[in-house]
Structure formats: structure tokens, C-alpha cells
Amino acid sequence: MAYKKTLTMGVLILLAVLAVAIAVPIATNNDNDNSLAPQVNQFFGRTVLDEVPLIDGHNDLPWNLYNYERNQINKFELNADLKAHPVWGPATNSHTDIPRLQAGKVGAQFWVAYVGCNNQYKDAVERTLEQIDVIKRMVRKYPQYMRYVTSTEGIMEAFREGKIGSLIAVEGGHSMDSRLAVLRMFYELGVRYMTLTHSCNTPWADASPIDDQPDATLRNVTGWGQNVLWEMNRLGMLIDVSHVSHGVMVEVLEHTKAPVIFSHSSSYSVFNHHRNVRDDVLKQLVQNNGIIMVNFYPGFVGGRSIDNVIEHLNYIKSVTGPNHIGLGGDFDGVTEVPNDLDDVSKYPDLFDMLAEGVYKNGTTFAPWTREELRKLAGENLLRVFRDVEGVRDSMVDVEPYEDLIPYQDFVDAGVAEQPCMSDLDIHKQ
């Protein structure tokens, strides 16, 4: 019996020694193998989109509603996969539907009421009204997903309800037909920013293509055009200086009483294009406390990779700091989009890459912090919008600007003839 007990004890001791011998190298290997270690509190950039609303500055879906549906949307279904639609699916300028907006965690969107420059001096006002109408009807059709808003508080209320705060923008000063009364009516109808020009000059402001015309006569912002700025300040309408010439950017920043926005523009230093913004203007923008919302269009960012967009974001942040930058994808308004950033569902991927600090090509950059990403997503735009609302409130006793545009502005713009003396004499009589 004593022999059996001794043998049993020996076996147990041997087993214990073997267990320790096996366990030690395993533990050592685990200590050195970081791939097996649990990732604790790893930060994914997309998580900020659950904390603050992602506010995109420019989406041309309403323009496609006109192009493909003639604004007849009663039987058109936006809450569907439009990639499978027989008309919208093959279209290279279709990047938006409700499922993709939800996948992209879009918290608020400026929907653009755009009409072409070919409507200038003709039916631009009427056509713009039709686009404002279709935006309102679109939002009203999907109350479970969208909420029509006109203020910063409205954006936050929609975000708290889990809905897309939907705002109206007018792209191009030609839409107001050089009439301040029309500008005021746009505001009454819910328009909260107006781009001063599109690709065509107005009688009171130059568009960006003029910067590539060395022999052109620059007018920048005319004296009457300054009334447009101040009336927008008085109303509480954001001034958008995307699409305008360099001279207009500079003069607007000198004369405005409120911060301005670039709703969909990128950096000229990164890619030389007249639609992009030069460093001197970016520095003025900081003094103005405004914001530039970066465009994704390959023709403006200089390539078809998400890396190109990130390069613009990083460069602009290096000039302005993190407080003056946002996103304005220009989806549904362009026929080319970057790889990996090809529709409205891809914003979370962009934020993940910014937080990780690695380009698709494998090179690295300084990762964006959570605070910087919150500002990029929406906090910067909300600050600018609140400041514009504050200027509006401070001008409550200012009478509307009502000066009529001088006939000479049309002459100088090349769209009217200089009246002869006999015509002036008849007018006087």
C-alpha cells in the first residue's frame, strides 16, 4: 500500500512538472505575439458619426429628380436600391438613395435647388422654384427618414430623432435674377444658403472660369453685389463662395458681416484648378471664422482615389487648423467619383481611414483625433451656421436692402448694350 501511494505521488509530481514545462513557453509566446492580444478600446473613426451629425454641404439629388423623373416623384421610390433601377442604375451621376444615406450615417444634408446657366435671363427664377418644391415634397414623402429643417436647432432635433435633417440650398446667383426681392422670397421658402455664382458670371459677380482667362476684365463683386451679401447677412442666409472667382472670394471675405462657407471646394495648392481655393483665401477664411467643405469630384481633387480626397483634407487642415473644414461631396452632381468613396454610403470608411492615418497606398499620415473628426463631421458647420443666425439677430432693426441693380452692371457684364443718347433723352421725357 505504501509503495502504491509513493508511486501515485511520483506520477502526480511528474505530471505537474510537465504541465509547467508546457505552459511556460506558451505563455512566453503569447506575450510576444501581439496579433493574439485583445484590442482594447480601439478607436474607429465612424463612431463619431453616432455622436454628432454628419452634415454634407452639397448633394444634387434634386437635379437628378428633374433629369430622370421630371420632378414627378409620387410613384418614384427613393427608399430603394437605385443601383438596381433600370434608369438610375446605369447612370454614372446617381449616388444617393435612402438605404445608402442610412449606411453612410448622414445626419443632415443640404439638398441643392440647381438650374443651369442657360436659364439665366430667362426662366431661372421659375425653374428654381420648381426645384425648391420637389425638395420639399421629397422630404415630406419620407417623414420616417427625413425632417425638413431650417436652423441649427432643427438639425440637432432631427439628429436626436434619428432622421436626416434636410435643408435647401440654391446653387448660383443667376437663380435670383438680380432681384433682392427674389432673394428674400427664397429665404421665406426655406433656402439657407445661396452659391453666389455657378460656372457663369452674373451681372454682379464673377465665376471661377474667369481666372483661366488672362485677357478677361475682372469685375469681382460690384457695388450692387455687395447689397446681395449684406441682405444675405440680414436674412441669416449662408453665403456660399464655391464656384466664384478668386477675386470674388477675397472681396466677399472683406465685406461680409458673417462667416461664409465653401459648400463643395478643395485646395488649389494640392491640385491647380480654378474651382479650388488658394492658400491666401484659406487664411482669410480663418479670420472670417468660416468653413471649407471639401469636394470629392476627381476633376477637382486630381485623381480617382479616396487618397486624393484625404490629401486635400490633410493639407487644408495644415493651413486652417481643424476648426474650418467640413465635407461637401457633390454626389449626384458629377459623373465621376473616387474609388472607395463612390456614393453616400462610404462616409464611415473615410472617417475610419482618417482615424487610422493610413492611405490606401500604404503610406501614413498623422491620424485625426476624435475631436478633429467631430468638427469635420458637423460641429464646424453648426458653429458657422449659429454665427450666421447670430448676425441675423443682431441686424433685426436693419431695413431690407432694396437698391435696384444699375443698368450699367448688365452692360459691363456684356449682356446689354450701352444706351445711345437718344434713348436716354426719350427716357427723360
What is the radius of gyration? 28 Å
Helix segment count? 15
> What is the level-2 CATH architecture name?
Alpha-Beta Barrel
- The fold-level CATH name is TIM Barrel
CATH superfamily: Metal-dependent hydrolases
Percent in helix: 40-55%
Contiguous runs where pLDDT drops below 50 for at least 5 residues: 1-41, 424-429
Beta-strand content bin = 5-15%
Would you tell me the structural class of the helices and strands? alpha/beta
Protein name: Dipeptidase
GO cellular component, one term: side of membrane
Main location: membrane
Subcellular location: Membrane
Describe this structure in words.
- With 429 residues, the protein is α/β, with parallel strands linked by helices.
- The chain has a single domain (45-412), classed as TIM Barrel (Alpha-Beta Barrel).
- Helices cover 43% and strands 11% of the residues.
- The chain is built from 15 helices and nine strands.
- The protein has helices at 2-32, 61-69, 98-103, 124-141, 152-160, 180-188, 223-235, 246-255, 279-288, 298-301, 306-320, 347-356, 370-394, 407-412, 421-428, and strands at 54-59, 106-114, 146-148, 164-171, 191-195, 238-240, 261-265, 291-294, 325-327.
- Strands 1, 2, 3, 4, 5 and 6 form a six-stranded parallel beta sheet that branches. Strands 7-8-9 form a three-stranded parallel beta sheet.
- Helix 7 links the parallel strand 5 and strand 6.
- Helix 8 (246-255) packs parallel to helix 9 (279-288).
- The longest helix has 31 residues, at 2-32.
- The radius of gyration is 28 Å and the shape is globular.
- The relative contact order is 0.13.
- Mean pLDDT is 91; it is low at 1-41 and 424-429.
